[in-house]
Amino acid sequence: MPRRWPPAAYAAPGVRAVRVALVGAAGFYLFLYGFGSPVAATYALFSAVALAGLSRIPGTGPQRAATVLRLVPVCLLLVVVGTFLSVRTWSAVAGMLVIGFALAFAAVGGPRPAGAGPGLQLLYILPSFPPYDPHSLGARLIGTTAGLALLVLAERYLFPEPAPPSYRELAARAAGTAAHCARELAAPPYALSPDSDGRARAAGTGLRSLKVPEADRPAGPGVRDRALTHTGLAARTLLSRLSALHGPPDGTGEVLRGVARLAEHTADELAPRTGPRTAPGKAPGPGSGSGDAYGELARARARLAAAPAGPAAPAVLRRDAAALEVADAALTMATAASLAVGGRTAADRVLPGRFWYARTPAPLLWWHRIRGHAGRRSVFFQNAVRIALALAAARLIAGLDTLPHGFWAMLATLSLTRTTVGETWGTIRVALVGTFAGALLTAAVLTVVGPHTAVYAVILPVWMLFAFTVGPVRGVGWAQGLFTVLVAMVFAQLAPATWRLAGVRMLDVLIGSLIGGAFGLLAWPRGAHDELGRAVAGLLRRAAETVVATSASVAAGPVGEGAVAGRGYRSLRHALILAESAYAQFQSEPARFGAAVPRPAGPDWQAALMAGHHTLWGADRLTAPPAAPAPFAAALGPEPAEGLTGLGDRVAGRMLLVSAHLDPGGDGPPVPALRDPAYRGFAAEPPGAPRRYYAAVSWLDSLMTDLERVTAPEGGTR
After folding, report:
1. Is the preceding omega at residue 6 within 30 degrees of 0, hence cis?
2. Where are the alpha helices (DSSP H) in 450-566?
3. Secondary structure percentages of the chain, helix, strand, coil, to 5
4. At a CB cut-off of 8 Å and minimum separation 6, what does 204 contact?
């Protein structure tokens, strides 16, 4: 089989390198040789290198162009502030400490701010070094603006990429698949075909964050992103619950038809191309379109919940309870989808609790996200502290006139630190070897070519193309070596340069690496994975407490009604909010520079969040003061009560097992099979058990399914 040329690994970096080379060289040559302004030329070049070379802004070309366009005022402000603070060492160091922290901590806003952070740091570092000339601010701003404008045009129009489906489109497809499955279950033979089951499995798996491009992950703090995350959770739940239904519908046919209609309207509302059937911004409720479907399903669900058990067989009661779970998931999905499409304008009819964020103003949601990460356990906080301290130290050393070309030392500090101490020192060793090789080549080139700037002008764009194509693929050693030669070619055109420039570059990288490594030891994260594991482990422990309390409350009958409501839910809600925040942090963590493989799949974190939500929703539903007739609120007999309490204890115990497995500080054994095939508790049919017993058993059974999905291997349990 013939080998592909160029290799697939070089395709995306090669396209990016073409954009960087064209934009950087065009801006550099325009101002240097066209207008005779080396200052503007330098800033035009490094604007492109900062936001297209050093940054890893996710998304397609138009998405990156939109991000860069929104960042233009921020970039210009950074140049202005850096220029004026650089005139005194103390102000420059203080500015580097504060602004360096703020730019790194801005990653809490989602994948795009996280990816743009290193480039913004570079644009602030650049004016913080000699020449300390505030009078050249105009040329600096002109060069920066021109470089960013050329970059926006290049990202938008050069080499357009096919846009992958957005998370909203994936959720719309999942809702459409759910509608198809519900219709199939409501008609003979009352079971999903293998094709439909496979489609449901694929649609649910496709909503996992690791299956979604970084730019489209709903990881922001706003209402729409939070609601879209909940839409995905509810859609996965709905598909899973539908797959578990089997047997003739009997009294659940009306609910299934209502689910099909509401899911279909939800798919239409989410689909960007077809547009919503109802006006965006209207929450589900009485009215036309999805409002009618929502109301019909809510009424059908209430009728099914209020129906007396009578002489119905346990199999019928079990299916009715499963249908109530399906209806609850569909109603939740529809409400979350309306919030995702309409934002805060759709919050009028949304009840607090599940969607606590719906009526919260945007500044408060941002404050909530920032406050949640303003602590030593946050990866973003640790990264921001590390970077700010390291950059401030490098700036202090440069300000004492002991470090020539201190800019390059700070750039090394910024680009060579990694997420673990071991990886950092390994990276530094490789980078120093690469820089040394690049320095030798630089010395040779400067010695041979000498002052002939025309030669450097011809080679520079070709070398940029080569450096930004090969460096990201071959690793940091190659990147540092190639960038060392590139820097020499740039400086040789700005001022006469000799082979000694290569030695200065080597010294800069060495000192910058040592500074970054030393400060990394003071505040070093291990990446978002561990923090997410701790948060999810805490969530499952709180969920286990709620499961035990809810099971006991239902077993006690009307006397215990609402025993765990209110105060008992607050700790679970708080743990759920923390876990969702950590999950957003995990989604926002940018890929490692030069990484050739995607992040390993690991646990299904979204399924763990689903388990937390389902615990809260089911407990709320089962312990709420009943509006139903007496048969649904009837007390459980001794045998059903004992069986339900035992089931609750069993599910809570399994939650604690999974919690210990996910907690990075735990010492629990590997998780065994969560379901014991010999255990018949979930299938038990105590004589005279009321409808409420089967509703609680169905809820506990669905929680076990969620737990199985958390630790299932890729392609296993949906």
Report:
1. yes
2. 453-474, 476-494, 500-520, 528-556
3. 75, 0, 25
4. 174, 235, 236, 239, 240, 718
For residues 633 and 626, the answer to whether their CB atoms sit within 8 Å is yes
For residue 642, the SS3 value is: helix
Q: Is the dihedral of CA 498, 502, 508, 511 positive or negative?
A: negative
pLDDT at 714: 52
> Is the N-terminal amide bond of 58 cis, ω within 30° of 0?
no
Report residue 685 as tokens: 């049919």
588-601 residue pLDDT tens: 655 444 444 345 55
Q: Classify residue 669 by its DSSP letter.
A: P
- Give residue 261's identity as a one-letter amino acid code: R
- Enumerate helices (H) and strands (E) in the chain, giving the number of each: 25, 0
Query: Per-10-residue mean pLDDT for the chain, 718 residues long?
Result: 60 86 92 92 92 85 91 95 87 91 87 87 85 85 95 90 86 94 88 89 83 80 88 90 79 87 93 49 43 83 76 80 89 91 75 76 85 73 83 81 63 64 64 80 83 87 90 82 83 74 71 71 58 86 92 72 50 79 68 45 80 85 57 66 89 90 72 68 79 87 87 53
Q: What would the pLDDT profile of 557-576 be if each residue is shown by its tens digit? A: 654 444 444 445 678 877 88
**Rama region for 247: left / alpha / beta (φ>0; ψ in -120 to 50; rest):** left
Q: Yes or no: say if 210 and 600 are a contact pair by the CB < 8 Å rule.
A: no
**Rounded distance, CA 452 to CA 473, Å?**
32
Whole-angstrom distance, CA of residue 87 vs CA of residue 148: 26
The CB density around residue 629, as the number of other CB atoms within 10 Å, is: 12
Count CA atoms closer than 13 A to 431's CA, side-chain side: 34
In angstroms, the Cα distances linking 211 to 215, 216, 341, 510 are 12, 10, 22, 39
Which whole-number Å values give the CA distances from 489 to 18, 443, 454, in the listed order?
18, 11, 11
Instruction: Identify residue 3 by its one-letter amino acid code.
Output: R
**C-alpha count within 13 angstroms, C-beta hemisphere, residue 49:** 26
How does DSSP classify residue 376? T
- Give, as one character, the DSSP assignment of residue 559: G
Distance CA 230, CA 218 (A): 10
Measured distance CA(67)–CA(60) in Å, rounded: 11
335 CB-near residues (< 8 Å, 6+ apart): 283, 284, 294, 350, 354, 355
In degrees rounded to 5, what are phi and psi of residue 237? -60, -45
H-helix or E-strand containing 385? helix 379-399
Q: Are 609 and 233 in contact (CB under 8 A)?
A: yes
| Distance set, CA 20 to CA 12, 147, 155, 359 (Å) | 13, 10, 10, 43
Angle in degrees, CA 446, 451, 452, rounded to 5:
100
Locate 437 and state its tokens: 């090789």
pLDDT of residue 90: 87
